[in-house]
Design goal:
Helices cover 45% and strands 19% of the residues. With 317 residues, it is α/β, with parallel strands linked by helices. It has a single domain, classed as Alpha-Beta Barrel (TIM Barrel). The chain is globular and about 60 Å long.
């Protein structure tokens, strides 16, 4: 297995106008990937990705994560193919369920989120591979659809999912999986087992970063967010052998109690602590089979700029 790529996410809250400068700075710093976060009702990932591709030469650009039903599957394939023509070999697409309450707000909530994702990824991959698609599924119905300009280099289509059934689906129909914040080596192994560990299956993580000389100072900015993930019973946390201990800390002492967690717990869930701790997290993800590690900066653009040299240092490890 080759060394994992290091990238950085462009948060949903960042202004679109910041993309060119941000993308050029990442590439100049030796950072290999840039992932665009798409959530309702913020910016959309494809045009931001197009801007990044247009102003860089080597940066790999990811769509993270397109909701399966927010667009028709044909339009999703058209957008991915268009991006692939702008940057052949530099595009990777993530498709997920989408937050179902948001899908309901837009009037597109499917009767079965699993079926919708399964059929969308299946059809999108066939269209990107230049197939003419006729399809009569539970959610999707196609009559002789073919892309006029399919990509010369077919992008990977990954499933952005978390739960057991969705991971099993990803193993059947997707080229890989995107595992979001909190995904450490234990959860990566658990997720790959649920996916069936298919060959040539790409694993991407969106990874929390907080580095300081004093570990406690590194933990402090993240305690509220981590406490929320623990309370929400995210699978990345519930699979850990010490999940009950972490949950008890939050229940008894609030988010601040997490500052006293052992450093090993923090290294499991992110590139958090000293620089050596961050490097240890990256090494553990590599050993678990991750091919792309992307720092998720949070909602403040200024903080993302401050973190960029640390991300570049991880890329240069």
């Amino acid at each position: 297995m080759s060394r994992p790529a290091i990238g950085m996410c462009f948060d949903r809250s960042f202004p679109a106008s910041a993309v060119p400068e941000f993308a050029r700075a990442l590439e100049a710093g030796g950072v290999e990937e840039m992932w665009f976060i798409e959530d309702c009702f913020f910016t959309t990932a494809p045009p931001l990705a197009a801007a990044a591709l247009a102003c860089t030469e080597q940066l790999r650009v990811g769509l993270g994560i397109l909701p399966a039903v927010a667009r028709t599957a044909a339009v999703t394939a058209m957008e991915i193919a268009t991006l692939a023509s702008l940057g052949p070999g530099r595009v990777v697409a993530g498709i997920g369920h989408g937050v179902q309450s948001w899908m309901g707000q837009m009037g597109v909530r499917p009767a079965s989120a699993l079926a919708a994702l399964d059929e969308t990824i299946t059809v999108v991959k066939r269209l990107l591979a230049s197939d003419e698609v006729s399809f009569d599924g539970k959610q999707l119905h196609f009559d002789a659809v073919r892309l006029d300009q399919p990509p010369s280099v077919v992008p990977a289509v990954l499933a952005g999912v978390q739960q057991e059934k969705s991971l099993a689906l990803a193993g059947r129909v997707a080229d890989g999986v995107i595992l979001v914040e909190g995904a450490g080596p234990t959860y990566v192994g658990w997720a790959l087992d649920r996916a069936g560990r298919p060959e040539d299956f790409e694993v991407v993580t969106f990874t929390m970063l907080s580095i300081a000389d004093d570990r406690r100072e590194a933990y402090r900015p993240l305690v509220d967010f981590v406490a929320e993930l623990i309370t929400d019973r995210r699978p990345a946390f519930t699979v850990l052998p010490y999940y009950d201990e972490m949950a008890a800390r939050v229940a008894d002492g609030g988010p601040e109690a997490l500052i006293e967690m052992p450093s090993d717990y923090w290294v499991e869930i992110g590139a958090i602590g000293t620089m050596d701790d961050a490097l240890a997290h990256v090494a553990a993800l590599e050993a678990a089979g991750v091919g792309s590690i992307n720092i998720f900066p949070g909602p403040e653009l200024d903080v993302a700029w401050e973190q960029m040299p640390q991300v570049a240092a991880l890329a240069a490890r």
